[in-house]
Design a protein that fits this description.
Elements (H helix, E strand, L loop, with lengths): L1 E2 L3 E3 H8 L4 H19 L4 E3 L1 H10 L4 E11 L10 E4 L7 E7 L1 H11 L2
Length: about 120
């Protein structure tokens, strides 16, 4: 599962990564470059696709709405390599895409995961 549009606010994210547990330290280290990038462009949100994928498996209540779609991953175009391409109109849906989440449940689950 994945989602098209989902992010958390920087202030919540700062609290999330400030935990002094080993898991919190791991998250800080692995997300360091993404945080720097967000700060460079003065973004008010942080994109949390990996954390969202994890949270959907930890608690199904995170997911409010899904849609089936035909999805592939770009392998050839260098600038887009690794990006997911979603085709909502074609037959042969092969992935469930999360289109809406419960922000509060997500934040609770992901915060607990790094305690």
């Amino acid at each position: 599962m994945t989602t098209c549009h989902f992010a958390v606010f920087q202030d919540w994210y700062a609290k999330y990564i400030s935990q002094t547990t080993k898991k919190g330290e791991f998250v800080r280290e692995t997300d360091k470059e993404m945080v720097k990038s967000s700060q460079r462009v003065n973004a008010s949100v942080y994109w949390t696709w990996d954390q969202l994928a994890m949270a959907t498996f930890l608690n199904e209540k995170v997911v409010k709405e899904t849609k089936r779609a035909k999805v592939s991953v770009e392998l050839h175009e260098e600038a887009k390599r690794g990006m997911m391409k979603v085709d909502w109109d074609s037959e042969g849906a092969n992935v469930t895409v999360v289109t809406d989440v419960d922000q509060k449940v997500f934040e609770q689950e992901i915060y607990k995961a790094v305690l």
